[in-house]
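Morning!

This is the sequence you dropped in the shared folder:
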Amino acid sequence: MIKRGVDFSVSLFLLLLLLPLYIIIAIIIRIKLGSPVLFEQRLTGRNMKPFTMLKFRTLPDSTDNNEVLLVDEAGCNDLGLFLRRSRLDHLPQLMNVVKGDMSLIGPQPLQLSSQQYFTAEEKKRFSIRPGITGLTQVSGIVHMKRGEQFAMDIHYVENHSVTMDAVIMWKEAVMWFRHKRCEEAPDQSLSGSDDEENLQDIHEWDRKR
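The structure's back. Tokens below.
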């Protein structure tokens, strides 16, 4: 209840605060990329129920419906690349948080088509809402195999706290200001030693809560 209350209040505040930025980005996308301004994608949410995740559109008309290119920058123009690398394309997900489909911090949402491959242990990651960012995302996701990612997601599910969420949010902010997004820019990803340090810091903060 505390986590949901924080998610709702913080996301609603940010939506109101960033409303002028939303409008500016929407107008630029409408001019440069066309309509619609928002991209909708069906993903797996809490308790493995599907939900529609919102993002600002980053692909032109010729490729905006090709889900394969959602994680491929080859189809993006300069505007699309800027939105992705700055993470501004994720701003509409605050509406998902207010609605209750997502959390500010949690496991990364996954494709619906992958549901059939999850083990009983891996399904634990779906007991909470997926997050805009999370422990895996700030810990060098590009260096991890699927099993390692899921193990980290499950660790978060079983041990998350207000303190851990605060540390993850701080690390997300640091990565944003350094323009380092591990899962989207492998050439700028954190080193293995940094990943280990990230995890040690988070666990240490959590033990001191």
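Headline: The first helix runs from residue 2 to 17.

More detail when I'm at my desk.
O.
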